[in-house]
Amino acid sequence: MALHTRVRALLSAAALSAIALIADDSGPALQESPVAPVHVTVNWSSPTPLISPSGPGFSSAGRFNPAALLQNGKTVLLFREQDRGGTSRIGYASSSDGVRFTVREQPVLVPETDYEKDGGAEDPRVLKIGSTYYMTYTGYNKHDAQLCLATSSDLIHWQRKGVLLPAYKGRWNTGWTKSGAIVSQKINGKWWMYYLGTSPDKRDYMGLASSEDLMHWSDATELPVLPRREGSFDSRVMEPGPPPIIADQGILLIYNGADDNLIYTTAWALFDKSDPSKLLARADQPFLRPTTEWQRVGQVPNVVFTEGMVQRGNEWWIYYGAADKYIGASRIAISFTH
After folding, report:
1. How many CB atoms lie within 10 A of CB 98?
2. Would you place residue 221 in the very low, low, confident or very high pLDDT band (cuts 50, 70, 90)?
3. How would you label 164-192 residue by residue, b for 16+ Cβ within 10 Å and e otherwise?
4. Element holding 293 (H helix, E strand)
5. What integer is the mean pLDDT of 323-327?
6. Fewest Cβ atoms closer than 10 Å to its Cβ: which of 8, 51, 241, 274?
7. Based on the number of CB atoms within 10 Å of its own CB, is 37 exposed (0-12), middle (13-18) or buried (19 or more)?
8. Contact present, 227 and 259 (Cβ < 8 Å)
9. What is the dihedral of CA 97, 98, 99, 101, to 10 degrees?
10. pLDDT(17) > 50
11. Would you give the distance in Å from CA 248 to the centre of its chain?
12. What is the pLDDT of residue 30?
């Protein structure tokens, strides 16, 4: 996620021209109404990390960017753990209270394929459909980052299904592909997934893909579904977070934005649940920012990056990576204006 973004090359003149075309063709920037249709209130945030790097081995550099879900009354996190050589694996932790976690000694997914060689498996999102868990993750081989899929019946044993959206081959995303957030039910007879792609200007935009079977995906639109806003908190990166929530008011997607200084924050966007490509509204400001030292200082500074969310009672617990090193949490309340 953030580390890859920071090491990319500076924009070329050709790239700048390309993004101007994307901005122009995306239509006018959506203006929020005076009364936003979605309200997010942060009720509590962990004052210190819930999970930190440990030991000299495969989690020595960081444990961060967790997916989250409930299983048998426990909160399970599947997270990225990274060694000091820069190779990532998918780790596992569980908790009875959502705060105190026991980390499994061994990761549940380790790099094995060519598209994971040396770089590893990164940044999972997980949801359960039927009796199967679907995990999207980034396969990174130190050259290319590509959106991949694995499935499981128990969250421990995973079967790879390969690359979902190959890098450099999209309709508008001419670079890497990452961060797949699958909608939990079919809409108009298809499955839908928000994802991150890189356009010719090297900015990271949010795309939309569709599938008949959850295994074979293709771009559903000719352009990104979330227009860029100059000077905004998400002017540089617009990256899907956890699997979206389907509400009466629409598809609510929690997403991660970064400004031109690559400060990563968390916000929301609302899409039409009869047309997942249609943006209805989006936040003017993020509801979660890096404010504590452990969110601002780490492998990548100034990052809160949300990938996990579970509902407990009337609150949602969100789990995020901090500074590409730690895992934190916040409890939030989500309400809609009718």
Report:
1. 18
2. very high
3. bbebeebebbbbbbbbbbbbeeebeeebb
4. helix 293-296
5. 98
6. 274
7. middle
8. no
9. 90
10. no
11. 23
12. 38
